[in-house]
Amino acid sequence: MSRKVFLGVGHGGRDPGAVAGGLLEKEVNLDIALAAEKELKRRGIEVLLSRREDRDQSLEERIRMCNAFGPELAVDCHNNAGGGIGFEAFCRISGGVSRKLAECIERRVKAAGQTSRGVKTRSLSSGGDWYGFVREVKAPAALCEFAFLDSPDAETVSSAQGRERMGKALALGILDALGAGRETYGVWVAPFTELSGAQAAQERIRRDLGLWCTVESRTT
Questions:
Q1: How big is the chain by its Cα radius of gyration, in Å?
Q2: Most buried in the list 64, 143, 147, 179, measured by CB within 10 Å?
């Protein structure tokens, strides 16, 4: 069974989100999500984006799509306004995997060169989670704000390279939360002209070294 991740892409269509200095949040959000999708798929993760183009999409639609998809983890992608500096992520008040997800993403974003305002919670007066995506998505979920578009912080995501960097950081953080963030490497041992010889060597490696290995055929 493939591992599944949902990426919500904030705003879209007639709702641009934050607008500053020629940047539209809806476009920045999509570019980051697409870059994250590319990296996640490269690692064998099944990904569903809430939208792949500039179109109207309500929060309710994003939540319905996510819950119908049934992912292991879900992240809603946003960018900020208000003159601040840095990344921030919101997780569930209850913590658990939602907090782990947010913290894993924060670590990767910081490693990519962006400062952080922290992993946070925000509550309604009733005590529930403020953000509908975090509150109503069934999977462990987080909402990420990668940069402020109306301050010098916008340089983090103003270029295609910057958005690619944040998207990859997002993907790596998700992989860390899934326990799939480390790449593995193989060692080619030796060629055999007979299948039986390769299988015997495979068994010795498994028995004597305790290593997993596989037999592959190759025409030379």
A1: 21
A2: 147
pLDDT in tens, 163-194: 999 999 999 999 999 997 555 455 667 778 78
From the list 174, 156, 155, 175, the residue with the least C-alpha distance to 166 is 156
Buried b / exposed e along 37-66 (16+ C-beta atoms within 10 A): bebbeeeebebbbbbeebeebebeebbebb
Nearest-angstrom CA–CA distance, 54 and 66: 18
Between CA 40 and CA 37 the distance in angstroms is 5
| pTM for this prediction | 0.82
**Alpha helices (H) along the chain:** 25-42, 59-69, 96-111, 132-136, 160-178, 195-204
CA distance 71 to 90: 18
CB within 8 A of 182, min separation 6: which ones? none
Element (H, E) at 113: none
